[in-house]
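Sharing a chain and its predicted structure for anyone who wants a worked example. Both blocks are below, sequence first, tokens second.
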Amino acid sequence: MSRTFSKINASAATLTKNRTEDSVVPASGMCVTCVDGCVGMCEIGKSAYRGHEVIYPQPFGMVTTAAEKSYPVDYSHFNIMGTAVGAHGIEPDSDKAIFPAVNLEVIFGQNNGIKYRYPWHIPGIGSTNIAKNNWEGLAIGSALAGTGLTIGENVVGMDPEVIIKNGRVVDTVDLKRRVKLYKDYQRDGYGAIIVQANVEDTRLGVQEYAIEKLGVECVELKWGQGAKDIGGEVKIQNLKKAQMLYKRGYVVLPNPTDPDVIKAFEKGAFKEFERHSRVGMVSEESFAKRVEELRKAGAKYIFLKTGAYRPADLARAIVFASRYKIDLLTVDGAGGGTGMSPWRMMNEWGIPPVELHSLLYQYAKRLADKGAYIPTLALAGGFTFEDQIFKGLALGSPFVKLIGMARGPIAAAMVGKTIGRTMEEQQIPVYIERFGNTKDEIFVTASTLRKELGDKEFEKLPTGALGLYTYYERLAQGLRQLMAGSRKFAIEHITRDDIAALTHQAANISGIKYVMDVDQGKAERILNS
């Protein structure tokens, strides 16, 4: 029996719907009866009058987006295996092997130089409005939690106050602010602020500036993401800003310097320009050269992030990362996006997370078996809760030590920020007000943070940061509980044997044992003893 995995022609992401919502052709997504006279509520109809604007999720700048596609295999097709005996990483004593004793700290990078309190971080939030408008919460919350945060692509190029001389950045406002917000709240050396770069950032010398002027130690090369296989893009609603970006070398559509385009914009024929980044052209020679340049500039740690490209590109990523001693390789599976990724591309392009992460494990093991250096690996692509984090760490063990998440943390920061606004307006929603009407009453982590920071510093905290910090606290306790149930009391003790595949298809793809085959030999020995 065939099954349709995609939803076509109508989505909340594009603000479209079918006229006959209960009767839709699966292959095309069209209404079974497409009627002459319909005003065009579906994506085809909206495209008839707004054209290319409908390629992207809406409303731009106020949403993060992820694919609606239902993949044949996902992380829900695995279950975590618990046990009633023993303990790893702690004495097998019921009074000592309790879940609060689980150690979630991760140390990675060459010479064990980077330490996180939790095995996750935010892998790249760049120049989109959704990132800029929530940066305060994301930076402060991440720093307080002791995890990493990556400043994504195009932040400098989009900064209207940046100073550029001879094609190179010499001073910034936005990047400086983003780095400072994180560093001001970093505690006890935990966590890291990472500056990412794409083609345009590299040409501007963004990472060299961040290292030399802002004291950034970690930089990341970017080969793409799980949402799209083209460069980053945003929408611009200001003509002068669009012209500024065009002059800085970005691809801006339509051309904001064309007199006819300017007239059309001023008449209201269209209301926004698109700014696009260029696609990178990867070669081993250019990769090696760039790594060497960054090390000479003073970078202590160099990361690489790649997306859901074809298997040959994944092989290149891990071989290059191995050969040139990259500290962290992040591999982002298809389907997610925090900015303005094309909606159909987000749904229909790339290798899904379980398949991509399984290939990554296979490639890493093959290289490790030859004695090659393997960087710390991070998985990304739709992770939001502690069970998924556990499964990702297990599927990629022993190479995977981190999980990358963006949409979940952004959601937590946005909710925290919104609660703060409703408190100021004295319009707290009923379902929140039942917990109280102050920060101390609403946010369950408030009393702990107040004690740690002191009253004066605590009162300065934005509620967006409290939202992210509290979300992370929930993930940490949930993960400790799952790990204690599997009797694994530190991240390094998690293995592939800690999860089981619920279907033969999931087992075949991942190499994880089918649930009915788990412990087969061990169970036989017990039965025969």
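Comments welcome. The first helix runs from residue 43 to 50.
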